[in-house]
Amino acid sequence: MIQTLLVANRGEIACRIFRTCRRLGIRTVAVHSDADAGALHARVADTAVRLPGAAPAETYLRGELIVKAALAAGADAVHPGYGFLSENAEFARAVLDAGLTWIGPPPEAIEAMASKTHAKQLMGLAPLTEVTESDLPVLVKAAAGGGGRGMRIVRRLEELDSALEGARAEATSAFGDGEVFVEPYLENGRHVEVQILADAHGTVWALGTRDCSLQRRHQKVIEEAPAPGLAEGLTKELYALAVRAARAVSYVGAGTVEFLVADGRSHFLEMNTRLQVEHPVTEAVFGLDLVAEQIRVAEGHALALDPPHARGHAVEARLYAEDPARDWAPQTGTLHHLSVPDGVRLDTGYTDGDEIGVHYDPMLAKVVAHAPTRAEAVRALAGALEQAALHGPVTNRDLLVRSLRHEEFTSGRMDTGFYDRHLAALTEPAHDPLAPLAAALADACGRSRFGGWRNLPSQPQVKRYALAGEEHEVRYRHTREGLAAEADGVRVVRAHPAQVVLEVDGVQRTFDVARHGDQVWVNGTHLTALPRFPDPAAQHAPGSLLAPMPGTVVKIADGLITGSSVRAGEPLVWLEAMKMQHRISAPATGTLTALPVTEGQQVEVGALLAVVESSRP
After folding, report:
1. How many C-beta atoms lie closer than 10 Å to residue 583's C-beta?
2. Calpha distance 347→179 (Å, rounded)
C-alpha cells in the first residue's frame, strides 16, 4: 500500500491530487520551483522540496531532481499530474528504477502513444511528409506533450517554414522535445474524446465521451460529458477505438483517446497517457474519483468487469488570467480574491493574495457544474461564473459566461471554429454604466466623516474611473439625508464601503464593491480609480509598443533596426511568457523610431519595446 506520494507537478493538479490523498490517508510531498516557493500546492502538502530555479526546463522538467526529491522526502510513489513529465517514458523508468511506485501507465505504453507520430502509425495512420497546395490547411503539431503547445495552423505554403520554427521552439520550451509533425487540418470539426481506465488484469473501461470543442490556441476552454448529440452508433465506434488503442499498448491506468468528429465520422487524433485537465466532468457523471482509481490500479487492485452507470451531465469551464479581446494575452499580478457560489466544484492552485507569475500556464481554476440534464448544468455553470468574485488581473470569465449562453452552444451545435466565428461579438464591452457611481459612493463611505455633509451649500464631489479603456466621471453630494447621486432617476437607498444599493427608476439594485489599492471591482466590473491630477510623465509617445506582461525578448525581426520601414501587422518582437511566445506587431505602417530592447533581455509589464511612427498624417 502506498503511504507517501510525491506529485511531480504544481498548481491546480497538485492540489487536486493532494485532496484525494488526504481522504485516503496518504501523506503528500510537493516539489516547487523558486517562483513557486509560496504557491498553494507547496503550502498544503505535508512536505515540500525545493527545485532550484524558476523556468520549467530548470525545475519541473528535471526528472532526476524530482526522483531525488522523492527519495529524500521518504515518498514511495510518484504521480506526474498532467503536462511537464507526465508523458515522459524516461522519467517513468527513472521512478521505477528508484524503487518507487509510478502512478501511470507502463513506460512502454507511454513510448508507444506519447509520440503522436508513433501513435498514428500504431492506429494505421501517418502524418504528412510533404505539403502541397492541395493539402492546405494543415496543422503543425508537437509530437510530445499537449495543452495546445507547439501548434500552428498553416493556410499558405509560404507560412510553413515559420510555423515549423515557432512550433519547435514552443515545444522545446514546454516539453523539452522539439519534434513536430504536419497533418491535415479539418475545419469546424468537433473535438470529442473518450476517457479510459485500465487495470493490470486485462480490464479496460470506456468511461463515456467528452466534448472539448470550445478551444483557443488549440487549448480547451469549456468541456462537457457526455458529448451532446452523438449518434449511438458513432458513440459505440469511439468506445471501441479507444479500447482498441489501450489494448494495443497493454495500457494500465487513466488515459484519454482523442478524436475529431466531422460529418458523422471519427478521425483519430492522439492518445494522452495521463490524466486530463477535464477529468472532473467524467468524475461527476460517473460518480468516481479518478485519482483514487489511479492509485488503486497502481497498487495492483482489479477493476470491476463493468464501469459504473453514467448519470446526468457535467460542464467544466477553465478560468484563465488572460484577455480574450487582446489576442488572449496572459495577465499577471496579485489575485486578491477568488470565490464561487456553493453548488459547483472549484479546482484551483491559488488562494487570496497569491501572485500570478510569468513562468507557467495562466489557468487560475476550473469550475464544474453537474445536473440531471445538459441544459440545467450549462445554466448552473453560467450563473455560478457570473456570480463569482474575481478580484485581480483580467480574466476570461465574461467570455465563458457569454459562450455558455450562446445559442450555438446551448443547442449543442458548436465546433472547434466557435471562437473564430464569434470572438469579436463575445468580447464586446458590456459594462454596467452605474458601476463607477457605486464605486465612488462606496469609497465615500470608507473615508473620514470630516469630509461629509455640512450645513452650507457645497459643490458636488467628483471622482474619475477608467473602465474598458474609457474615462468615466461621476458626481455625488453629502446631504442631510446622506449621500445623493448627481444622476437623473437614481436614488441612493444605502451605501457602505462594501455594498451600495441604488434605486433606478423605481427598481432597487445591489452593487457589491471591493477595492484593492486603485483597483475596484463592482459586481464583477473592473475599474481603475484615477488620480485627481494625472502624471504627465506617465504618457508614452504615439505608436509605442509596451510589454503586455513580464517576459523575455526571445527574438527581434531579422534586420530590424531604428529607421527600418515596417508594415501594419508585421511582427517586430517576440516575447516569451507563460510557456508561450507572443508576437508584438507594428500598429501601423511607418518607420521604427526606437528599439530599446535586445534578444534575451528580461522586461517587466509596461516596458517600452519599440516605437513606430505612422506614415499617415
Report:
1. 15
2. 32
Exactly one of 16, 27, 274, 318 is catalytic; name it: 274
Bridge pairing between strands 313-320 and 138-142: unpaired
Neighbouring-strand partners of residue 138:
154, 184
- Sequence-ordered list of residues with C-beta below 8 angstroms from that of 472, at least 6 positions apart, any chain: 436, 464, 465, 466, 527
Beta pairing partners, 603: 551
- Order of strands across the sheet that contains 519-522: 482-485, 470-479, 461-467, 525-529, 519-522, 507-516, 499-504, 490-496
Helices then strands (H, E): number in the chain? 15, 38
Residue span(s) of the chain under CATH 3.30.700 come to 435-529
CA torsion through residues 14, 16, 17, 19, sign: positive
Cite the residue boundaries of each domain of the chain with CATH code 3.30.470.20: 190-426
Phi, then psi, of 341 in degrees rounded to 5: -65, 160
- Check if the beta carbon of residue 259 is closer than 8 Å to that of residue 230: no
**Phi then psi for 552, rounded to 5 degrees?**
-120, 130
Q: List C-alpha distances in Å: 210 to 44, 115, 320, 329, 385.
A: 31, 22, 21, 27, 21
Grid cell in block for residue 557: 525581426
Q: Which CATH number fits domain 115-184: 3.30.1490.20, 1.10.274.10, 1.10.10.10, 3.40.50.300?
A: 3.30.1490.20
Of the candidates 307, 80, 349, the one whose C-alpha atom is nearest the C-alpha of residue 198 is: 307
pTM: 0.84
Task: Please state the rounded mean pLDDT for residues 222-242.
Answer: 97
Q: How many CB atoms lie within 10 A of CB 284?
A: 23
The answer to whether residue 274 is catalytic is: yes
Q: Which residues pair with 452 in a beta bridge?
A: none
Phi, psi of 466 (to 5 degrees): -95, 130
**CB–CB of 67/100 below 8 Å?**
yes
CB 35 within 8 A of CB 54: yes
Confidence of residue 115 (pLDDT cuts 50, 70, 90): low
pLDDT at 75: 98
Q: How far apart are CA 210 and CA 315, in angstroms?
A: 9
What order do you get walking across the sheet with 313-320 strand by strand? 265-272, 253-262, 190-198, 204-216, 219-225, 313-320, 363-371, 345-348
CA 238 vs CA 126, 198, 241, 257: distances in Å:
19, 16, 5, 9
**Hey, how many other C-beta atoms are within 10 angstroms of the C-beta on 328?**
20
Q: What is the pLDDT of residues 477-506, one digit of tens each?
A: 998 889 999 988 999 999 999 999 999 999
- Do the beta carbons of residue 545 and residue 573 sit within 8 Å? yes
Cell numbers describing residue 518: 486603485
Order of strands across the sheet that contains 602-603: 580-585, 571-577, 551-556, 602-603
Secondary-structure class of domain 4-103 per CATH: alpha beta
Fold classification of 537-614 is OB fold (Dihydrolipoamide Acetyltransferase, E2P) (2.40.50)
Region 158-169: mean pLDDT is 88
In degrees to the nearest 10, what's the CA dihedral of 415, 396, 580, 30?
-110
pLDDT at site 558: 92
In the chain, where does the domain assigned CATH 3.40.50.20 lie? 4-103
How far is residue 584's CA from residue 229's CA, in Å, rounded to a whole number? 41
Q: In what order do the strands lie in the sheet with 47-51?
A: 47-51, 27-33, 4-7, 77-79, 101-102
